[in-house]
Design brief:
Length: 82
């Protein structure tokens, strides 16, 4: 694939939905990062699509946000928000 994942519209949609979920939970980027044992800049770079989110990071973020990764994937396939 010649186009990077971070420029893919579906990827951006997924990241946007995760960001919306974080905000709905009233978590700051720093709070989410602390719960994952990471620095705030990691969350910021993911949310701005500056860096790609790998599978393990996706699963960890889902856990922090009280989501099941498989449910988020299913919702994405169905065109629904988590």
């Amino acid at each position: 694939m010649s186009e990077k994942q971070i420029y893919d519209e579906r990827y951006r949609e997924l990241v946007g939905r995760l960001k919306d979920t974080r905000k709905r939970l009233r978590l700051t980027q720093a709070q989410a990062a602390v719960r994952m044992g990471l620095c705030r800049t990691w969350v910021a770079k993911i949310e701005s699509c500056e860096v790609g989110l790998d599978l393990l990071g996706f699963v960890r973020l889902c856990g922090v946000y009280g989501l099941r990764a498989e449910d988020v994937i299913r919702m994405m396939e169905e065109g629904k928000a988590p």
